[in-house]
């Protein structure tokens, strides 16, 4: 095949392109600036185009689940898509778990999946698979160009699809020959539709409900938890006596000092029912009514009490921020309302390290404007309220329940916000799903401090064993939930990936290690043995 050298203008536009050039230039023109990649043979022309088309940062990930999880974290912090570069059907399948989390987190993501050349598919080579079937299972939008001349427009449409509110997963399957053959010039960016405005009737109905004397809960999700609508929600609550809630696993929320009081729903369904029992009305803003994470014998799946009426101010695809501002005006709420004070918890006394003590120390030492990512589950969920009066920060949770999301999510968040410290709260069992993210953090010198809770167990599954009323766990059952014999050595694992690490098991040592990690730049890991 002859060498291909496109003509590149000062603006990065190529005038003699192959499909890969036109794809990459279109992505850049559409505002996609980062590619989290795990490429193979079918993607080599895309890889080569990175040297010819300016404006795209390539970030190598050693597992596809790291690439897709990093794209999720990047999107949550920027509001715009990165792209992933994945290798055929098996590569896409490896990334599906964290695409599931991205979909549940309403994150805009563009996947570029290389595939066999159009004429090669009929031979059923070893890596031939139903890529469309894999992609359609998890994507909102899927397309496979049949000609290099449509690649640019397909790429522009993929970005537009990803940016449809509140955020979608778009997958472009790129046959290898459509990447190497001559193509049309790059396509211009396509404008994505803005969030739909909320009907005035919905605002009027919400205002009437909030002033009818009934006790009201307001459940929020999406950009209202970190956008301009958040303060408006706080003022509405102060004026009307409503209580603000967010989902247990919310994609992103502004938290800490200077933010309104927003209570996170409990994890267990029975606890949600008990907490909402006092309310007569539930007003949804970008959220869906709460449901149980799993089904349990003898327990409800639908978690809104029967006596609690459900009203919707804004659907997820609608402009909840504007709706909350209008609602605040409708109920004549003051523009100033009570916020969490800056009052970090005190440091615990010396002694053996516990999960509560570790999060108390994190909250006490958290730097201003940090990004906290959380997959600590049993080690963090019971104590998350300790962060409420810490320094102001953004909080990102595991949205879809597919564990192994937070190390990659932290990686993408650090790429998106290089001037902010990322503090990752992770469990040892979850971390082993995507431990390769540490290598990418080291290679890119990302400013991530990982607190690795080492309880040597899938502790949440020990709870689930009882919750689903399975038979009492014997030796065989318990062994499937245990991480001893051998125990994971997180210092050696992290250092093998290029990340400085230390192991601690006392409160004093943990506080000292965290102070040192927060004062340094670049990735660090603290194994918190609890």
Automatic annotation (TrEMBL):
Residue stretches making up the Thiamine pyrophosphate enzyme TPP-binding domain: 386-527
Domain Thiamine pyrophosphate enzyme N-terminal TPP-binding: 18-122
Key word rRNA-binding present: no
Superkingdom of the organism of origin: Bacteria
CDD domains: TPP_BFDC, TPP_PYR_POX_like
SUPFAM superfamilies for the chain: Thiamin diphosphate-binding fold (THDP-binding)
Keywords attached to this entry: Thiamine pyrophosphate
UniProt keyword annotation of RNA-binding present: no
Pfam families, per the entry: TPP_enzyme_C, TPP_enzyme_N
Similarity field: Belongs to the TPP enzyme family.
Name under which the protein is recorded: Acetolactate synthase large subunit
């Amino acid at each position: 095949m002859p060498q291909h050298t496109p003509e590149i203008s000062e603006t990065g536009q190529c005038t003699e392109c192959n499909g890969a050039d036109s794809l990459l230039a279109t992505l850049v023109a559409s505002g996609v600036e980062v590619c989290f990649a795990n490429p193979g043979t079918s993607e080599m022309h895309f890889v080569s185009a990175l040297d010819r088309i300016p404006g795209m940062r390539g970030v190598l990930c050693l597992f596809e689940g790291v690439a897709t999880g990093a794209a999720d974290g990047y999107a949550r912090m920027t509001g715009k898509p990165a792209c992933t570069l994945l290798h055929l059907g098996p590569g896409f399948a490896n990334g599906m778990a964290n695409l599931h989390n991205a979909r549940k987190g309403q994150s805009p993501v563009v996947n570029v999946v290389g595939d066999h050349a159009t004429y090669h598919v009929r031979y059923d080579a070893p890596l031939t698979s139903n890529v469309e079937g894999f992609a359609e299972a998890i994507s909102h939008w899927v397309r496979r160009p049949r000609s290099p001349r449509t690649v640019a427009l397909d790429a522009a449409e993929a970005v537009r699809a990803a940016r449809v509110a509140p955020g979608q997963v778009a997958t472009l399957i790129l046959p290898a020959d459509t990447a190497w053959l001559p193509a049309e010039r790059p396509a211009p960016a396509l404008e994505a539709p803005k969030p739909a405005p909320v009907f005035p009737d919905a605002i009027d109905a919400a205002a009437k409900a909030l002033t009818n004397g009934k006790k009201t809960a307001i459940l929020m999700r999406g950009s209202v938890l970190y956008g301009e609508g958040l303060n408006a929600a706080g003022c509405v609550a102060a004026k009307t006596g409503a209580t603000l809630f967010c989902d247990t696993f919310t994609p992103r929320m502004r938290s800490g000092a200077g933010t309104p009081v927003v209570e996170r729903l409990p994890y267990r369904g029975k606890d949600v029912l008990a907490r909402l029992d006092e309310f007569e009305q539930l007003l949804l803003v970008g959220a869906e009514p709460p449901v149980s994470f799993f089904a349990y014998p003898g327990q409800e799946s639908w978690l809104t009490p029967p006596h609690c009426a459900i009203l919707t101010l804004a659907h997820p695809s609608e402009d909840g921020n504007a709706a909350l501002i209008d609602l605040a005006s409708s109920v004549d709420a003051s523009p100033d309302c009570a916020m969490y004070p800056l009052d970090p918890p005190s440091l615990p006394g010396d002694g053996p390290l516990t999960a509560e003590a570790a999060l108390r120390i994190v909250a006490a030492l958290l730097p201003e404007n940090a990004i906290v990512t959380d997959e600590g589950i049993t080690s963090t969920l019971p104590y998350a309220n300790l962060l409420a009066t810490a320094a102001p920060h953004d909080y990102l949770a595991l949205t879809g329940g597919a564990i192994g999301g937070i190390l990659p999510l932290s990686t993408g968040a650090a790429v998106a916000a290089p001037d902010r410290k990322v503090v990752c709260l992770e469990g040892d069992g979850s971390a082993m799903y995507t431990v390769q993210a540490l290598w990418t953090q080291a290679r890119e010198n990302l400013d991530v401090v990982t607190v690795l809770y080492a309880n040597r167990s899938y502790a949440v599954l020990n709870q689930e064993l009882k919750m689903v009323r399975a038979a009492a766990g014997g030796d065989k059952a318990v062994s499937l939930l245990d991480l001893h014999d051998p125990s994971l050595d997180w210092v050696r694992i992290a250092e093998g990936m290029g990340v400085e690490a230390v192991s601690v098991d006392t409160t004093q040592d943990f506080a000292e290690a965290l102070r040192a990690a927060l004062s340094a730049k670049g990735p660090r890991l603290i194994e918190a043995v609890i």
